[in-house]
Amino acid sequence: MIKKHFNFFIVIIVWSSLITAGCSSPSGKNVPAGAKGSPPFLLGAYYYLWYPENWRDGYVNGLLTPSQPPALGEYHSRDLKAIEQQIAWSSQFGIDFWAVSWWPGHVELDRKLHENILKAKNIGDIKFCIFYETAGLGMIDERITFDAERTNKMVSDFKYLARTYFAHPSYLKIKGRPVVIIYLTRTFNGDYPKAVSSLRGALKEMGYDPFLIGDEIFWYVIRSAPLPPSPDPNMSRIKCFDAITAYNMYDWARPKQMGYGGGSTFLSDVRDLYQKYQKAIGKEVKFVPAIIPGYNDRGVRLSEKHPVIPRQFREGEEEGSFFTQALKQTVVPFINPDLPMALITSFNEWNEGTQIEPTVEGPITRRDQSPSHTEYTQGYAYQGYGLKYLSILQETFGAISGQVTDDRQGEPLTKAKISLFKGQEVWTFGLSDSRGFYNLSRFNLPPGSYELRATLPGYEETVLRVTVEEKKSLSLNLKLKKNR
Fold first, then answer.
1. Which long-range contacts link 447-452 to residues 24+ away (Cβ below 8 Å)?
2. N or C: where does the chain have the smaller number of CB atoms within 10 Å of the terminal CB?
3. Of 322, 354, 386, which one is at a domain's C-terminal end?
4. Helix (H, G, I), strand (E, B) or coil at 389
């Protein structure tokens, strides 16, 4: 199991009330994806606050020749301009929320969230939730064993999170329920049922009914000591949560999964395991698929000689081709109509090379700064990809997107309502963000013809006929005229 130097995130949703005693949650009624009135699709990405410290730890893109640093440079997680640009990118390209890494006991990381992220002028353009890093509670022999001390610590942390963040207008909620993703639940041991039940009970007293997503899916999961790890779902633990996900399915000890995705078993193995978990949990617990765009932690852990999953699906294919296939094979087919959500690992975990945050644009290189010039890359090609990965997300999940502006001044228009009608009924709608960008998800729209209506007080209504295709994203910029 890869141990992160600080670790990070995930999210989720539920559509029914939760039982706060014990480890069970009721199932909801299925609503087919694309049906009128179906839940809105939510795309999330894990977000980290550990910069500039972690730039110094090393990351592959910074060790290439020439280097391919972030488009924002090696920023500080307190830099408001950088944060606002990251929010702007996320909103423009259809990332609905960040799962923000939060570590027990790391006061400085908490300050960065509370004093910087939430002070961004455009924080209202996206949602956020807490990605609770349980490794901070203490792990021994790949187990987080809950006793009274660990239980009290986790409950205390969640009470703090509830007081500090749950009431924020940008905090991610599903029908009023604040979402928290919990890392490494697959390692929980000891009296974890009491720990989760106590957590729920404490938050209920504060007026909150949390929606908890557990990081349960992996190639092996912990069972109660002294039993060895098992390749099968641990249903007694899974039932403690409202939904489950997989933070990162990379496992360096599985050589057949390494290398180009087109020649490895990684995606097929992930798909098979996802199917196994879906079948096991049925409708009682929801399933949130997640995927990486590639993996390379040799910039931070070179001595461990971990193999690479490159960002090309096959040799010679373009940057991002692995990500495109990963979304197609292991995310899109597993989106739950009750909980249409997907997670990306990650927005900015540069040390493990899973980031989709834009880089500077640059040429393809296989060379790095090691004596052999290939110790970090293992000879795989890297390109300064710019906005490539954000564009892939939009093309995969978006039906219609664009920008709304004033037809004369060209200024972006905020909170314009973009609605799609079939006949006289609204099928789905969205609002433009602080820069005028909007996104309508494909997962709420079956293919067909619609009438698009753009409305904003003080402006004339714009009406257009549009056709939604099954696998094609439509870019449509709208210019609104002021009322005469």
1. 448/422, 450/420, 450/421, 450/422, 451/420, 451/421, 451/422, 452/400, 452/418, 452/419, 452/420, 452/421, 452/476
2. C
3. 386
4. helix
Q: How far apart are CA 241 and CA 390, in angstroms?
A: 30
Same domain (yes/no): 382, 402: no
197 confidence band (pLDDT: 50, 70, 90):
very high
**Rounded-to-integer distance, Cα 276 and Cα 166, Å:** 34
Q: How far is the C-alpha of 439 from the C-alpha of 8, rounded, in Å? A: 26
Which of 386, 412, 439 marks a domain boundary?
386
Residue 102: both structure tokens together: 């939060």
Cβ–Cβ < 8 Å for 198, 156: no
Candidates 184, 190, 193; CA nearest to 226 is 190
Task: Name the residue with tokens 């790890």.
Answer: 229
The length of the chain, given as a count of residues: 484
Report the b/e string of 224-235 with b at 16+ CB within 10 A.
eeeeebeeebbe
383: CB partners within 8 A, 6+ apart: 68, 319, 362, 363, 364, 365
The per-residue pLDDT for range 118-168, each reduced to its tens digit, is 999 999 999 999 999 999 999 998 899 999 999 999 999 999 999 999 999
Cut 0.85: pTM above it: yes
Q: Are strands 290-291 and 211-215 parallel, antiparallel or unpaired?
A: unpaired
DSSP character string of 300-347: HHGGGT---B-SSSSTTSPTTHHHHHHHHHHTGGG--SSS-EEEES-S
pLDDT, mean of residues 233-249:
97
Q: Which amino acid is at 284?
A: E
**CATH number of the structural domain spanning residue 377:** 3.20.20.80
What six digits make up the tokens of 43?
């795309």
Neighbours of 411 (CB within 10 A): 9
SS (H, E, C) 119-175: HCCCHHHCEEEEEECHHHHCCECCEEEECHHHHHHHHHHHHHHHHHHHCCCCECEEC
35 lies in a domain?
no
| pLDDT tens by residue, 62-91 | 999 999 999 999 999 999 999 999 999 999
